[in-house]
Amino acid sequence: MDRKLKNSVNWRCARYRSAKCKVRATTHVLKNGQEVYQIIRKRGIMIVKGTKGKPKLLMGGYEYYRNNSRGSKTYWLCARNRYLRCAARIITCSSTGELVIKNQQHNHDATHQEKIDKKKPEEGPEQESSSSK
């Protein structure tokens, strides 16, 4: 975690120092502590609300779904994991703000880039209240 503010968390790549990676992302939190699943664009990373209302992480034309959460860590698997046995995975840590790409090798093409480019930020009361400060 790069910086934690009252209603949002700024994230930076876990390899910020070692590889000088400048990838960043921002997530927002509701007053009751629940996550806000809205589109957040920072250097190619987006977190969106999936079709079943669950969060989906989009990065580099690939979709990841939240597999598990333990403590402050969230484990994301490639959305094609079940169908194509793709082993790509990402770990995010809310306490440190790290975004760790555990396995970047996909066994398929990034076929969802057009779908990702068409997405637009969702407007809702959560965004209006946090942006009025």
TrEMBL record:
This is FLYWCH-type domain-containing protein. Gene3D superfamilies: 2.20.25.240. Residues 2-37, 48-108 form the FLYWCH-type domain. InterPro entries: Znf_FLYWCH. Signal peptide: none annotated. The keyword Metal-binding applies. Keywords: Metal-binding, Zinc, Zinc-finger. One of its GO terms (molecular function) is zinc ion binding. Pfam families: FLYWCH. Residues 104-133 are annotated as: Disordered. Residues 106-123 have a biased composition (Basic and acidic residues).
